[in-house]
User: What shape does this take?
Amino acid sequence: MIKGLKICGVSDPITLNFILKHPNPPKFVGFITNYKNSKRFVEYEKLKKLINVDKRNIKFTSVLVNPNKEILELIKDLNFDYYQLYDVEPERTKEIKLKYKIKIITAITVSKKNDVDKYKDYSEISDIILFDSKGYHKSESFDHSFLNGLPKNLNKMIAGNIQIDDIPNFKNKDFLIDLSGSLENNNGKKDVNKINKLLNLSSKI
Assistant: This one.
């Protein structure tokens, strides 16, 4: 079996409802909360309404790039289980975790092998370490072999332009898998048919 899935960049109620009611749901759903350059960004009022639902044991994740105090205060009472933080230093990460009593996914962006070692600064703070590409919203990839040799006990997630057909390659690996761009149609919207294919495939692996 694979360890679990995260579907990131959900921005509309139809897609979210489809995921929540699916017989083989993912473990996590991510929402782009403050990164306005992303086509998947959700404005606060829309986000507040979108995630005010029964999560059915799925962990809702707020994706934040170097969040300031204003956005953190704005979202603190929303229906989130995790904050996924990009470009946040370890001490600030710890402050956010303690102040808002929230679980943390720290995103390490990787373009070369020694980028991976940055996880060591967060391993005692963050609940999950996500290894992603430098592309942020552009669904770029990186060499996943850079992650060979990571500690078995590290709770880790992998992203970076992962395709649906790549999922069997993660069978019996100790990574959660994060997908976004590969679940979209040509106009950049989430495609429930692709999501359905992913979730059904993952249930058989």
